[in-house]
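Researcher: Structure prediction, please.
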Amino acid sequence: MTYDIRTVGAHPDHWYPLAWSDEIKPGQVIGRRFAGEPIALFRTGDGTLNALEDRCAHRQVPLHLGVVSGQTLKCGYHGWSYDRAGACIDVPYLGECRLPNGVKSYPVREVNGMVLVFPGNPQLAEERLPAFLGKAADTGYLTRRLNREVACHYSFLHENLFDMNHQFLHRKNMGSIKARCLGRRHGETWCEVDYTFSRTEGRQSVGEAAILSAMRPGDGRKFRDLMTIRTEYPYQHLKVWVGEAGAPALDVWLCYTPLGAEQRANRTFGFLSVKKSKIPGLTALAWPFIAWFTERIFQEDKVIVEAEQAAHDEQGADWNNEVFPALIDLRALLVRSGTPPLSQPVGTVLSRTAQN
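Model: Predicted structure follows.
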């Protein structure tokens, strides 16, 4: 049975970012969501991070409106207390003899300053925990956080990054760039594609030059530059090499955490890392231009994928006429790896899509 890709849910049996570590100080609690599930993140006084269902078992009010007390989280309404496992351990006006079952708890970890929560089967959590996220912890790179809410289904963002044939969209910031696909590969839980680029009109922006200046040309690579994009469900990676086969000049790691139950909006978390130039301080000096350039590109992408979501909502189904083989690989991966929608399935996996 197959489905409209825009109704396929993000599979919960993976780690998803919900916040940044520095958003939650000791003694604080905040509310977040994964695909409609409300989750309260709270840090005890000793710095331990915890994740509980963000609904008090009593009157269902959000626990993130409560108070951290020692190793527990107290509901802000009647003061019911929950331990780190979600068990209700105190109802102040009844004592411990008549306690409800409590609320759901979630595995939670901090990796490279990002708070990751595992919303699915907790028995799979440890084996699927990523040890690191891109180059965020690599001192050979300068890294900036990527953090924005985007009003679209996560599949639009996967497709946007994976398909570099959309360079016409960025013509005002990059001039006319032509992407050439060098090859594609795919497996059960991943797919990737390679590109090289040529400028057909206009000049290189300061931001582009700042990123690419980290690498030196002349190692005999057939193509001057190489970009590899990999979707390793549910994450995406983008790497750019210039002139040598060693460390990439640019490394981007991304994850799109769905917010509402219909998953038509997400919070995009990520890291953009640029390899430091061999000239001390040069990359840091160029950093404001890199940030300015990448923000303008990301903003253009945000506008266009939100327009795609609006078109899907107006049409009521996925009318995508996809012809690029790498995108057909990606769409099949997202359907295969995600969860089927609760609604009646419509169309086919690659609705109105050319089969190559």
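Model: The radius of gyration is 23 Å.
Researcher: Thanks, that helps.
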